[in-house]
Amino acid sequence: MSNTTDTATIIPLDNVDPALVEALLDRAFEPERRQRTAYKVREGVEWLPALSFAVMDAKDMLVGTIQCWPVALNDEEGRAHPMIMVGPVAVVPEQQNHGYGQALMASALAGIDERAPLPQVLIGDPGYYGRFWGFSNAQTAGWSLPGPFEQHRLLVRCANPAVLPEKGTLGPWTR
């Protein structure tokens, strides 16, 4: 990590004013972000506090966030296969490329219970998320989302990929 992240602090996201989080997300992704398919996938569910974090710089300014969400892949038989949707990972534009996003990803993934890990899914760059965290699109070709998306950017990370359904639709998990 760069010197910038050496002086940063990662804190639970629920310790941050939600208005500040929304403002950061608007800056990182623009207000139209709410129209993206990822928002439809997690519609109606709350983010997971134990896996969602913020990063504060040396001046205690919010510079990045990550949220994780309970989602499910609903297979062709109607069974829900619970998963964790990772993202958005957001860093204010002027602080990008300083390691904040990687630190947030590492924090979120470290919080997943290794004794019974749920598969993690995200929409993102396969090269980047594959290289650093083992996400892949090898198992997602038969999956669909409730809106437009680029199939090759639908990624999953799973300790045992054999448990993943070949086909299904990703959406909110409401237990």
TrEMBL record:
CDD domains from the UniProt entry: NAT_SF
PROSITE patterns per record: GNAT (PS51186)
Domain of life: Bacteria
Pfam families: Acetyltransf_9
Segments forming domain N-acetyltransferase: 8-161
Protein name (record): N-acetyltransferase
Organism encoding this protein: Novosphingobium organovorum
